[in-house]
Amino acid sequence: MMSVVGTTPFIKPMTSPSSVSPGQRRHTLPASEFRPLNTQDAISVFEIEREAFISVSGDCPLHLDEVRHFLTLCPELSMGWIEEGRLVAFIIGSLWDQDRLTTDALTLHKPHGSTVHVHVLAVHRTFRQQGKGPILMWRYLQYLRCLPSVRRAVLMCEDFLVPFYRKSGFKVLGRCAITVANLSFTEMWYPISGHAYMRRNSEAIRFPQLTSPLERPGTAGERTDT
Ligand SMILES: CC(C)(COP(=O)(O)OP(=O)(O)OC[C@H]1O[C@@H](n2cnc3c(N)ncnc32)[C@H](O)[C@@H]1OP(=O)(O)O)[C@@H](O)C(=O)NCCC(=O)NCCS
């Protein structure tokens, strides 16, 4: 199985229509941009995690060293949403090579696996309830379709978030074998056929230039390929 390393398609930044006009040099940061994260983003990632998880439950999906670990090993499986230079939402993933998640999946990246394990999706507190989480997930799943070796995405979540991920097209696999402290999780998956890579100059690689929140709702699971 091919590794995705070295085959990562270009993630097209999203800029607002007004940010640059033809022939004009940009002097300001792009209003909005999606890009893979790198280790320099680790602190911003962890700050969002600290507020989202640690302040609530005392723990978080990825500790700072684990954030750095995955952003070093497989930055191409992460995606950040940056607005005016500020990280407002992110996803971190790694590759996994078994049907179901086990405890090893929390810390390991299996370069030859065909499953993307989505470790964490989080939106900065001040940007929640605006549809950003589903939009980011939608773009991430579209992006994964451009990676030829990826066949599916999996995640584990607390039961109350199952409806949220269902709206993004994920289906329930069953109880997750992993427990953390006294928390148990549902394991969910999303099929990714990978054929979009062959059509990289067609609609698959031209990530939608989101101009309206109308582009987000419930469409993530609707496949247009055959
Ligand atoms: C979950 C999360 C990513 C959603 O992102 P978002 O941009 O706010 O998503 P939306 O704008 O669609 O609205 C929030 C939706 O999230 C879901 N949600 C968030 N918190 C929830 C909770 N405590 N209980 C149930 N559903 C919840 C709901 O579906 C909600 O939609 P609703 O208000 O119509 O019921 C965001 O709330 C977040 O970052 N939370 C903290 C981190 C987290 O729990 N991440 C997921 C586990 S890895």
From TrEMBL:
Location (main, coarse): cytoplasm
Residues of the N-acetyltransferase domain: 32-203
Pathway stated in the Swiss-Prot or TrEMBL entry: Aromatic compound metabolism; melatonin biosynthesis; melatonin from serotonin: step 1/2
CDD domains in the record: NAT_SF
Pfam families in UniProt: Acetyltransf_1 (PF00583)
Subcellular location: Cytoplasm
Keywords: Acyltransferase, Biological rhythms, Cytoplasm, Melatonin biosynthesis, Phosphoprotein, Transferase
SUPFAM superfamilies in the cross-refs: Acyl-CoA N-acyltransferases (Nat) (SSF55729)
Entries under InterPro entries matching the protein: Acyl_CoA_acyltransferase, GNAT_dom, SNAT-like
Catalytic activity, reaction form: a 2-arylethylamine + acetyl-CoA = an N-acetyl-2-arylethylamine + CoA + H(+)
Family: Belongs to the acetyltransferase family. AANAT subfamily.
Name listed for the protein in its UniProt record: Serotonin N-acetyltransferase
